[in-house]
Design a protein that fits this description.
Length: 185
């Protein structure tokens, strides 16, 4: 076609301007999303989490949190859980188990997850000590972890039940109201 104009290749200056704009947009998006380390506290905990079977066999008390990414209460509690994990790193295992991940369905069933967040508490020898359903404040998490680390009775907190062995005539397992595993307090 003789009459149609041919596109001209971009000049060197135009190429440089486009690269600068692209880099500027990329940096802007990165900053808007919270920088390079934009993981939420829950994502950080999940990434750093020890496998449940390893935690229950390594000689440290263990706190397993059953959670879901969509759970607002779980997200609200995550900064305190991350701080707990950091402050007790060599004395307590903090393990996160996502109830929506089919990989963990056996654990969800085994520990009768009735609502989230659910904390299952274990002694250093891997024996169940108690269960907590619902939001825990930082000071409550510290009290629970201190009892586990010091092998002391669990603190008397609303929504926390102790678990005793089924030996003996009057042995009782304290439970919290039954709901669905994907409900939350």
């Amino acid at each position: 076609m003789a009459g149609s104009p041919q596109p001209r290749p971009l000049g060197r200056l135009q190429q440089v301007v486009l690269v600068v704009i692209a880099v500027g947009l990329a940096v802007g998006l990165l900053l808007m999303r919270g920088g390079i380390q934009s993981e939420t506290p829950m994502e950080q905990l999940a990434r750093r989490s020890v496998e449940p079977d390893i935690a229950l066999a390594n000689g440290k008390p263990t706190l397993i949190e059953f959670y879901a990414d969509w759970c607002q209460v779980c997200r609200e509690m995550a900064p305190a859980m991350l701080e707990l994990e950091r402050s007790t790193q060599n004395r307590l295992d903090v393990v996160l188990v996502n109830v929506d991940n089919p990989r963990w369905q056996d654990l969800v069933n085994r520990y009768e997850v009735n609502g989230i967040p659910q904390l299952n508490l274990f002694s250093a020898d891997g024996q169940p000590r108690g269960k907590s359903i619902g939001l825990r404040k930082p000071e409550e998490l510290k009290a629970l972890s201190a009892a586990l680390i010091d092998d002391q009775p669990l603190p008397q907190l609303r929504g926390v039940g102790s678990i005793s062995s089924l030996e003996g005539e009057n042995a009782v397992q304290a439970t919290v109201a039954q709901a669905g595993p994907r409900s939350h307090s």
